[in-house]
Amino acid sequence: MVGVRKRIGLKDIQLLKPNETVWDDAVTGFHARRQKSPSVSYIVVYRNAEGRQRWQTIGRHGSPWTPNTARDEARRVLGRVVDGADPAAEKHRKRNAVSVAELCDLYLADIEAGRLLTRRKAAKKASTIATDKGRINRHVKPLLGGMRVDGVTHDDVDAFMYAVADGRTAGRTKTAKKHGLANVRGGKGTATRTVGLLGAIFSYAVRRRMRPDNPVRGVTRFADGRRERRLSDTEYKMFGAALVEATTREQLWPAALAAARFLILTGWRRGETLGLRWREIDLARRTATLADTKTGRSMRPLSRAACDVLRGLPQTSELVFPATRGDGQMSGFPKIWARITKLVDLPADVTPHVLRHSFASLASDLGYSEPTIAALVGHAGRSATSRYVHSADAVLLSAADAVANRTVELMDEARPDAQVIAIRA
Description:
The protein is α+β, with helices and mostly antiparallel strands. Helices cover 47% and strands 12% of the residues.
């Protein structure tokens, strides 16, 4: 666009004709333009750090913008450009800024489509996505959802964390299931994990250029508060008695009772157990090959005691531990678990994860090394563990037998053929 170059004054503005531009010869890129309307706009043109040309409108002629004040503003804009800023892009971003609620929806859409990967370069699992949705809907959106993404500060995140910890978002909310209700309690653990998720969401916003920084970075979170609890010898015996009681008197769903026994004999994660399929099991080799676990593909040795549990189950479904109705996983397991533990008054903090930690602790008590324990229960560090599983199946099977037999012994369930052998690997 060609126009007159001169130091712009009030008279030049008054003489401008429609679609005419006058360029300032004192500040490079600064000019005034009249379009079809009577108003005149002051504009500055520059190139950002990437070499792209930007047009930044300063404002229309009239208070407060005169040729002199607009020229000063143009100098300020160009000064920021020299420092690496991109004022026009920032202005565009603010004008089109989305809310935190909209950002969360965009994040979830990309997560569900598999377009965002975890640190292990894999898509998030459906169970993790469901947890993320719950935290977003129950904590993030109620407290931060109405704020603009570019307006959230470090202090806002800090206040958010304390609000969740103090129970500001506590209450009963509907879930995706029909007639489903979730009892939202809040607390420090929930606050810490939700702030962690919020950090991932704002990292996504930075990648999408919705803001230049992550306001979660630097926020001091509460200690997670998780305890690596294990069963005591007395609790092992109580758990064994509870399984007998549940089988003989309560007559609970047999597949759920078998799953509970399998958990204590293997140290597997609850989701891995309830999602186990018959095609993943080789009873002849006493091996289970799980294609998709928390740490990826995982090959697990199976003890004879665990194989006995599997052989006692009918193969009426693809799932080893099927639900009472339908083809999906057993969603009612937590309620059955609660009934099992209440039969003998086991403490409320005895969870399936406690069985997992107890199994690993027993293996350590018997003298097994960390790589062996990792192979038994599917801990992270798969590269070393995978090589170990493929080259030392006999050692791992012996280890699985030793830990399972010790578990049976502690539950006071004698196995005539059981012999605890501690093989240090």
